[in-house]
Design a protein that fits this description.
8 helices; Arc Repressor Mutant, subunit A; alpha+beta; 2 domains; three-stranded antiparallel beta sheet; single chain; binds zinc ion; globular; two-stranded antiparallel sheet
Amino acid sequence: MYSEMFQLHADLLKALAHPRRLEIIHLLRGQELPVSDIHTMLDLPQANVSQHLMILRDAGVVITRREGKQVYYKVADIRIMEASDLLRQVLIVKHKDTPLAGELLLRMSELVPIVQDPVCGMRVSPKTAGFHVLHDAQDYYFCASGCVSIFKKEPAKYV
Ligand SMILES: [Zn+2]
């Protein structure tokens, strides 16, 4: 019983112990996201994202909900978030005299905001979107070059 307890604890930490999986947890702070958004925000191959999500789900860290063809993910227990934030605070103290401390304080929504491709309506992340246009001092991001050319032909239609 005694050793089983520490094994369970270690298994949970093992599921969390990957930079991409910690990133996923922080993306899911206070929100439920479809796998396609997680994929867009992390800029990782879908198969890779799915594998990380499976590990998190098997460990009970995230739970899923299916709606049509889309699967939505959210953190199963808010205390996972709190535990992760506590560890980040340890890191903030450790790195307090470096620029890293500031970044550790940021939320994922500040690090990886989500915007909409004005042409197709797809959700993209400015950090990972390959296509960007500056129009009338405003930034626009696109899923692919096709949407960029459509936008450039007739920007007034989309702004
Ligand atoms: Zn598009």
